[in-house]
Structures are given as C-alpha cells and as structure tokens.
Amino acid sequence: VQLQAFGGGLVQAGDSLRLSCAASGRALRSNAAGWFRQAPGKEREFVASISWIGETNYADSVKDRFTISRDNAKNTMYLQMNSLKPEDTAVYYCAASDMTLFASIRASSYAYWGQGTLVTVSS
C-alpha cells in the first residue's frame, strides 16, 4: 500500500486548505485512516482520524476547525483545515491501518504512512 499526501502550501492565518491522501495498491475502505503532523523541533502529534464506518476523533487543538473525511470509491481521504493558525505550521502525514480499526489516535495503530506535505501558516 502506498499513500501519497498532497495539498500543502503557504497560507495566511485565517485561510483554509484541504489536504488529500490517495491510496494505491489496495482498497482501504475497511481500514482506519488518520492525519498526524510534525512541527519543526517537535514530536509527531495526532491531528484527526476516521474509522471505516466514519467515526472521527480530533485533537483538541484542531477540533471545530479541521474536518477529516474519506471517499472510499476514490480510495482517498481528506483533511479540510479552516481558520488556520501559525501554530498549525507543520509537515502533515496521512496514515492508514492494515486492518479494520476504530478511529485510533495512536501512531502505532497505523501501518502505512504517506510522505508528508508541508503546511506553512504565516501570521
């Protein structure tokens, strides 16, 4: 399974951005999927996740601003980011589990990872 994340870029505070993550090699409709991010000098942290039946979890820092979704027909998941803040600046990674799973917030739950896409939010 290969995951490819794209959609990052440079935006201003308050702007919106949508990240996409396309999976190839295997249909992931029964798998959990998630987004994590890593800011410069910091550890990778959980952002959002979605189970195979659409249940979601969000980090407190992004709740009510970010929305995770998936299109199983396209084998793609998305992260809609609104009201972006400078502290959202990070490399964003998409991930998928290798089995049917709830919307885990743990990085160790995910077997497949994308290469990351950089989001920079200027103040």
Description:
There is one protein chain. This protein has 123 residues and is mostly beta strands. The chain has strands at residues 2-6, 9-12, 17-24, 33-38, 45-50, 56-58, 66-71, 76-81, 90-96, 112-113, 117-122. It contains no helices and eleven strands. Strands 2, 4, 5, 6, 9, 10 and 11 form a seven-stranded mixed sheet that branches. It has a four-stranded antiparallel sheet with strand order 1-3-8-7, with no helix packed on it. It is globular. The N and C termini lie far apart (37 Å).
How many strands in all? 11
Q: Assign the structural class, choosing from mainly alpha, mainly beta, alpha/beta, alpha+beta, or little secondary structure.
A: mainly beta
- Biggest beta-sheet profile: 7 strands, mixed
Radius of gyration: 13 Å
Shape call: globular
| Low confidence ranges | none
- End-to-end separation in angstroms reads 37 Å
Elements, N to C (H/E)? EEEEEEEEEEE
Distinct helical segment count: 0
> What integer is the average pLDDT?
95
Strand content: over 45%
Q: State the helicity in percent bands.
A: under 10%
